Structure formats: structure tokens, C-alpha cells
């Protein structure tokens, strides 16, 4: 039995085109694929319901019990998204996108004032969805969600910071993700996006910033001091960031860290793919350090550290009080049951093979084998808040 996974970064409407369009730079990809898909979802609530229910089902199958989610700019569509998670029994932190700038004229909010009004309405109506339930059954929460600095005026960002503070709401966005994005911000504002977020009151202990691949060591320390968390998205970073995230350095800095799939910049809905990619990328960084004979501490992480990021690390970033042992008595029972060996057939399950009888209790080697080779065939049950959802 393991804790469920926490996905700290995904774009729900982008499930519509998952697995396509990854050959473009970030800003071109947003224009050609992301904005079109989000606009289409906002214009067809039936399609939105279909896509969101399928997404939630995929997450459950993959052992994800909590997700921090980007939606679209339309309030009604985001309420459908919140309902899909609540009805399926999955924890969700749902963000209605705020963006009063866009390269697509038909997909943008008319003004900062209207964007703030809509964000405020969404926060109120999202909380109302579950207000009749006991507190422990309220699984969805609203999130203040400026898309990223290039999609928001400074006026909107500062007002969103005020709204998040006023309503005690979480914040999510993208920070220091890609070179073209960084250059746009510097050219148009004269400072880095981390400074703009800070000046807008959007770097708080309730904030999760995705990517952060171009942050300096001092900026990582700055986030730690502010209590802001990072969603590390190693798969999408490989496509759009042009630089690997300094994961080992971030862990050593003490900043809160978890993993994200970043659908659809990442093409897997399974956090296990993110865990594996996080380790692979870190080992490539360490190989580069050794090859160049650079002195210093190793840069790679191991599978156990990646598993921690996917579970306890993510839960901590979301503000879930999990402590040192998420499955201890008194904690919310968010867990997944993993089966490795079929006693009736006398062999491993799924991709896992055993050529000797396995020990009577689960060994560390068996868990590592699952971490490397396991898939949905090994997951026989998922529980969130004690409710059996798979």
C-alpha cells in the first residue's frame, strides 16, 4: 500500500490533443494548439464534460489522488471541471485561467476588471459546489490562476494577488519555463517574471509555480523563504524548456517540490512517467558534471527520492498535512494498492517477472522493480479520503 500520487501541474482542456504538436517552441505551440483547444472546450460544454470525465478516469487509473489543474477562461466550463473531480472522488485544486493578453483575439478576457470579476465569481461558485457537504468530503478547491506573465497585464497580476490574499486562495502559474518566454518578459517589462510575480503578491506559501527551469540558486532560495512550491515537470521540460531543471539543487535548497505531468506539454497522464524522467534527467546532468570534471556534489537523484516527490512532496506543496508518514492513523486515507505477484499463477503481474519465489514480505528490490517496470496492471485499488474509487 502506497500513498496516492499528487500531480502538481496539468492543463485539463489540453487532454483534447494529448500526444500531438510537440515539435514547436513554447509560444508557437500555445498559439497553434493550446489556445485553440481551450477555446473549443469553452464553446462546447458537452465536449468539455466528455473530456474532463475521461481525464479524471485516466488519473484514477494511474494512481493520482490529488491534482492541481489549469482550466480555461470560462467560468461555467471550470465548474464542470470541478464537478468531474468531486463526483469521481479525486482531490482537485481547479484554476480558472486569467489572461487579458493573448495572441489569439478570440481567446482572451476583455479587460483586467472583467477577468477579476470572473475569477471572484469562480472562487465563490466553486466553493458553493461542496458547501453542503461535511468538510472532509469537500474535495475541490478554487485556485487563482494567471496563465503566465506574457498573458497578463501588470494591473491584472496585482489584482489577482490581492484577490488571492483576500479570499485565502491558492495560486498557480508558470515561472521561468522557456527561453522564448523569458526573453519576451525581459523585453517587455525589463525585469524577470519572478520579480513581477513577487511585486504582484503572487509568491506566497499557497503558491505552486510550474517548471522554474531557468531559476538561479538565489531564486530557488528566494522561493523557499517565501514558502512557494515548485511543480517539476521533467517530460515537458525536455520539449519546451531547452534546459533541465536543477532538481538536486532545488532539493538541497529546501524549497517545497513535487512532480507534474503538464498535460499536454507532457504526453503522459501517469506520474510514474514523470518520476522516471526526473531520475533520468538528473543522471544525465550528473554524467555531464563528471565528464566536464566539475567539482561539487552529485546532481542525480534516486528512485526513492522521486517516489517521495510524487507522493509526500506533492502533498506538502498542496498544503495537505501528511507528516512524515502519510498512511499513519489519523491522516486522510489517500492510498493505492499495488500488487506485484500472483500466487495463483506463480509469477509477477504485468511487466514484472520473478524467476525465484518472492520473499514472504515485500522487499526494497521488489518495490524498485515495480518503480521501473510497473503499470496500471499492478494497481488493484485506489482510495481518496477513505473512499474506494478504483
Would you write up a description of this structure?
This protein has helices at residues 26-42, 45-61, 75-88, 112-130, 154-167, 179-189, 193-199, 217-226, 234-240, 247-253, 271-291, 303-317, 364-373; strands at residues 2-3, 5-11, 64-70, 91-98, 140-146, 170-175, 207-211, 229-232, 257-259, 335-338, 341-342, 347-348, 379-384, 387-388. It contains 13 helices and 14 strands. It is globular, with a radius of gyration of 21 Å. The protein is of the alpha/beta class and 390 residues long. The two termini are 14 Å apart. The strands form three sheets. The protein has an eight-stranded parallel sheet with strand order 2-3-4-5-6-7-8-9. Strands 1-10-13-14 form a four-stranded antiparallel sheet, with no helix packed on it. Helix content is 43%, strand content 17%.
Describe the secondary structure blueprint for this structure.
Layout: E1 2-3, E2 5-11, H1 26-42, H2 45-61, E3 64-70, H3 75-88, E4 91-98, H4 112-130, E5 140-146, H5 154-167, E6 170-175, H6 179-189, H7 193-199, E7 207-211, H8 217-226, E8 229-232, H9 234-240, H10 247-253, E9 257-259, H11 271-291, H12 303-317, E10 335-338, E11 341-342, E12 347-348, H13 364-373, E13 379-384, E14 387-388
